[in-house]
Specification:
The protein has 12 helices and 14 strands. By secondary structure, it is an alpha+beta fold. Strands 4-5-10-6-7 form a 5-stranded antiparallel beta sheet. A hairpin with a 6-residue loop joins strand 13 and strand 14. Helix 10 packs antiparallel against helix 11 and helix 11 (241-254) packs across helix 12. The longest helix has 23 residues, at 265-287. Bound molecules: flavin-adenine dinucleotide (FAD).
């Protein structure tokens, strides 16, 4: 199908972008990588009267690490994140997820900001950001809002972004000593969206117990969510297969998957548990410097 007619602007700076989003509030759509938006336009599921192409807005694709956090610009592509040196050295959770998104073409064009703003319930980044307790930064001409990932993903294709806002960056806390993260995803075939996926970011205490644990699940409910029951099971526990299984069972029980072409509900629940267990094993091994 051919999209309905729309205007197109390609501002070169953030102020111009925010200005036009305010002037055309509710009618404009941001164009980032286009890998989700263009199909929606062609199917006429989205009918904006203006596309605001943000590819020339300087700095939006930067990845900068400070003492406290990794700041990933909304226009950073999946590939850029995958190849980033700081990500490779200290953020294995992000590296795992980036490497499994779509195929090379999708990774070359798709962006973290586009993925989060689109909020497909099977997308990988939202679960990762929930597990890592990241913050998403939205800007409008009226100011800036910092929204915890756990509050950002509201429903299927629904986020906390307001129509006149631009998602500008994602802030991920820098892992401290004895931290480990991992992402485990099962897909029907290479390059597919997840059938079920689990993101884990945890930190061990000096005595080896799990001091802090974040668990985010994808493709297992109407939107990605924190498996808070699993987090409670893990916190204070000594890593073991029994503990991982108990956390996996808690994650499965908190899931609300729908039957679809990826499989029935029982299968997806079983995969919720299994992906959680596998991510926990790998995250703990990484925290111990063994993987
Ligand atoms: C074949 C294929 C396979 C894929 N496989 C996977 C996969 O395995 N895992 C996965 O997670 N994803 C997958 N994707 C999705 C892919 O990662 C998309 O790139 C991503 O979902 C959208 O990113 P984008 O930059 O292309 O955004 P766009 O398509 O440009 O935008 C998507 C939506 O977000 C809005 N938006 C974009 N940027 C901003 C911003 N900065 N502020 C506010 N709103 C914004 C747009 O207006 C639009 O509504 C796949 C896509 C395809 C086509």
């Amino acid at each position: 199908m051919i999209p309905p007619p729309f205007d197109y602007v390609r501002p070169s700076g953030l102020p111009d972008t925010l200005q036009v989003l305010k002037e055309r509030e509710g009618e404009a759509k941001v164009l980032s990588g286009g890998y989700s938006l263009i199909p929606l336009l062609k199917l006429r599921l989205a009918q904006p009267t203006l596309l605001v192409d943000i590819r020339d807005v300087g700095g939006l694709d930067a990845i900068v690490e400070t003492d406290d956090e990794l700041v990933v610009g909304a226009r950073a592509t999946h590939r850029r994140i995958l190849l980033d040196a700081a990500v490779g050295a200290r953020y294995p959770l992000l590296r795992d997820a980036a490497g499994g998104i779509g195929d090379p073409q999708v990774r070359n064009w798709g962006t973290i900001g586009g993925s989060c703003a689109h909020a497909d319930p099977s997308a990988d980044w939202p679960a990762v950001l929930i597990a890592a307790r990241a913050t998403l930064v939205c800007r409008s001409i009226d100011g800036e809002r910092r929204i915890p990932a756990r509050d950002f993903f509201v429903d299927t294709f629904v986020t906390a972004i307001e129509p006149a806002e631009l998602l500008t960056e994602v802030r991920i806390p820098r892992p401290r000593a004895r931290s480990g993260g991992a992402y485990q995803k099962i897909e029907r075939k290479a390059g597919d969206f997840a059938t079920a996926a689990a993101a884990v970011q945890l930190r061990l205490a000096a005595d080896g117990r799990i001091e802090e644990a974040g668990v985010g699940l994808a493709a297992l409910a109407e939107t990605q969510f924190a498996a808070t029951d699993a987090e409670r099971v893990l916190t204070g526990g000594m890593p073991s297969e029994e503990l991982f299984r108990a956390a996996g069972d808690a994650a499965a029980a908190q899931s609300r998957p729908a039957a679809d072409t990826h499989g029935p509900v029982a299968y997806k629940r079983a995969m919720a548990a299994e992906m959680t267990v596998r991510a926990l094993r790998r995250a703990v091994a990484r925290a111990l410097g063994q993987a």
